[in-house]
Amino acid sequence: MTNRFRALTSRFRPMGWVLALIAGVSGLIVGCSADNGANPGATSGFDDGQFVRVLEPGNASSGLIGGTLNVVDGVTESVIEVSKIVVPRRSATITNGRYTMVVPAGALTTVTAFKISQDPTSGAIVCVLEPHATDFRTPVEVHFDLSGTDAYLHDDVRAQWFDETDQTWKDVESVWDPTTQTLVGYYPHFCSGRAGW
Q: Highest taxon of the source (predicted)?
């Protein structure tokens, strides 16, 4: 490592902490709860019966390309997380099993860490989208692969986000393609996301 590189990295290291602190505080101010439930199905509206569900258990995370296994309070949970750092002028794609997030160039004003978390054992098509409480200049696309689910039973499948203030699921602009079994939601803001009706 060259001295010039060391000087640059040590000069910008405090900036990373400042950005992380600002992001954390903004999450508390805007209204998404800090306890987002490491389990994407842990939100209170989970059992409202309006989730797209996986028909064969164990297929909720087909196509998983990476992730981590969380341990919370000594209990192992089956939450799988995939994250990526995205810079404002570039587009990025992040995939976690059935969920693909497409961040368009120009959606951000600063370097941002994105994460998709899912519980492949829940049987519901629901995920946690982060960073919480972040508004985007251009909506971020979330593609839901609904193959092998009961989505074909419903004409009005749509993408939704969980409003933690009033504890309800709200629709986002979305496009359902029954031929490819793909639902695309356009999220101007992140909390939890799901495919439902």
A: Bacteria
